[in-house]
Specification:
- The chain is an alpha+beta fold and 501 residues long.
- It folds into 3 domains: 279 residues, FAD/NAD(P)-binding domain (3-Layer(bba) Sandwich), CATH 3.50.50; 92 residues, 2-Layer Sandwich (Alpha-Beta Plaits); 92 residues, Glutaredoxin.
- It contains 11 helices and 32 strands.
- The strands form 9 sheets. Strands 1, 2, 8, 9, 10, 11, 21 and 22 form an 8-stranded mixed beta sheet that branches. It has a 5-stranded antiparallel beta sheet with strand order 14-15-18-13-19, with helices on one face. It has a 4-stranded mixed beta sheet with strand order 27-26-31-32, with helices on one face.
- A hairpin with a 5-residue loop joins strand 31 and strand 32.
- It starts with a strand and ends in a 6-residue tail after the last helix.
């Protein structure tokens, strides 16, 4: 059988894999996805929305409106049962979005299709062997692929991670729950409920938010989440498992039947010791698993993809040395480690005993104060992410604010400069005072003035710089003070050495 070749092969066509494929395709890299499901229509609804930082990420690629037009804007960030209102945060998207994962995947798949990324549906990566120049990828149908790099976006049980021998240290589960989309003969009590057995909920995929309250449509499938009385097995759950769990918790299974999908999740908390082994990389759930508290898993994975995509593209194209990939683990591993920590804390606060309830009451009182509220809300919504790119101006390593700019060609937003995932150098001082000719083939140089205040969700107002170098993922890599001091080093570090001649 003939060997098919791609620059990058992605194992897994969920949100992380789709986002990564889009990022690579924007950079002109030949990328393909291998997805075990026969089509995207079989995506489940395990995740239920997007946080503010993820909406910003989609906005900087020019596709946020596709999601906003189908979802429900709402305040979704919270911790330990305390809901946060981030409507006073300095971002265009000072809210979350209620939108089930199947719709998120469908919209992302449509975008990836526009970028002509091939997806090998109905196949799985079953093994691989890497050498000095690439990776031979084995598929379940026997058809071999050859890639320069393989990225495992294949979930918490990632075959890619296991086959690469990457350790997955962490903590075993202490609680287990079933989540499903099913038909029910009887109407269950919609909403989230807590009793001595744990937390369970019932909802409809078709709903609206009116005056801050969820209003469900009549009929149709029901989304179910029910806590199991014992840690479930690692095998795929059955309809009988779901029925038994419902009867144990609710006293009835409401005539559950015709499951569309059933899945089991636990509070198992683990993180890959390394996000890279040679030419094999990990992203999303393949590199970190945790309890779903706070709805941070899908969002963290999508942001993994946006951090990795432009770096991998530059290495594949020979623009940057392979060492640039080391910054992917260095930047994203601490972000996920923090998510693991706050989800473990949230699970601990869900325990029904009186002592834990007392801790929860103290936490609620604390989070009612302004400074703790802002700190935790920024953490839960992803708005406080900060990469270590060096010391200096507080903008360094943080997301560039989506300012309204005025250029010679007219008004423009910062995020619109990033639609093609190209880095940008904003000269906000005297036009023509910055020269980046050796990098002009890679970095856009825009002379502009700005409107409005410079504010960051985690910092408040910051002093306006004279120039800013923005990476393709929207984070600031260099801040100018009216001179070009350090600019050449930053350009070389992030976008490769200067062009000769």
């Amino acid at each position: 059988m003939a060997m098919t070749k791609h620059a990058v092969v992605i194992a897994g066509g969920g949100p992380t894999g789709l986002m990564l494929a889009g990022e690579l395709a924007l950079a002109g890299v030949d990328v393909a996805i291998v997805e075990r499901r026969p089509n995207q229509d079989l995506a489940g609804s395990r995740a239920g929305g997007l946080h503010s930082r993820t909406i910003e990420v989609l906005d900087q690629r020019g596709i946020a409106d596709r999601f906003l037009s189908e979802g429900q804007v709402a305040q979704v960030a919270g911790f330990g049962g305390v809901r946060f209102d981030i409507s006073d945060f300095p971002t265009r998207h000072n809210y979350g979005l209620g939108l089930w994962q199947n719709h998120i995947e469908r919209i992302l798949a449509g975008w990836v299709a526009e970028l002509t990324v091939p997806i090998y549906y109905g196949r799985e990566v079953t093994g691989f062997a890497q050498d000095a120049t690439g990776v031979d990828v084995e598929l379940s149908d026997g058809g071999p692929l050859r890639a320069e790099y393989l990225v495992g976006c294949d979930g918490g049980r990632s075959l890619v991670r296991k086959a690469a021998g990457i350790e997955f240290p962490g903590w075993d589960p202490t609680t287990s729950a079933l989540i499903a989309q099913v038909e029910m003969a009887e109407q269950p009590p919609l909403g989230v409920h807590t009793n001595p057995f744990g937390i369970h909920s019932f909802g409809k995929l078709d709903y609206k938010i009116l005056d801050g309250k969820v209003v469900y449509a009549d009929g149709g499938p029901v989304g179910v989440m029910v806590t199991e009385q014992h840690i479930g097995p690692t095998t795929e759950p059955t309809l009988q498992d779901l029925s038994n769990a419902l009867i144990a918790v609710c006293g009835t299974d409401y005539g559950v039947h015709s499951p569309i999908w059933i899945s089991r999740f636990t509070d198992m908390t683990r993180q890959a010791a390394s996000y890279r082994d040679g030419r094999v990389l990990l992203a999303g759930d393949a590199s970190h698993v945790h309890a779903p508290d706070g709805g941070q898993g899908l969002n963290t994975g999508v942001q993994d993809a946006v951090n990795l995509g432009w770096k991998l593209a530059q290495v594949v194209k020979g623009t940057s040395p392979e060492s640039l990939l080391d910054s992917y683990h260095a930047e994203r591993h601490p972000v996920a480690a923090r998510v693991l920590r706050n989800t473990m804390a949230s699970v601990a606060l869900r325990r029904p005993d009186d002592r834990t309830k007392a801790v929860g009451e103290v936490m609620a009182e604390l989070l009612g104060m302004e400074e703790p509220r802002k700190r935790f809300a920024a953490m839960q919504s992803g708005l406080d992410v900060h990469y270590d790119v060096g010391n200096g101006h507080p903008l360094l390593g943080r997301r560039m604010p989506d300012l309204d700019l005025v250029t010679a060609d007219g008004p423009i937003r910062v995020f619109s400069l990033l639609h093609d995932a190209r880095p940008a150098l904003l000269n906000l001082g005297e036009p023509g005072t910055i020269d980046i000719t050796p990098w002009a083939d890679r970095v856009q140089l825009i002379d502009a003035t700005y409107l409005g205040a410079w504010e960051l969700p985690a910092l408040g107002e910051v002093s306006p710089p004279a120039a800013v170098l923005i990476r393709p993922d929207g984070y600031v890599a260099w801040v100018g003070d009216g001179t070009q001091a350090g600019l050449a080093d930053a350009l070389t570090r992030w976008f490769g050495p200067p062009a000769s001649g």
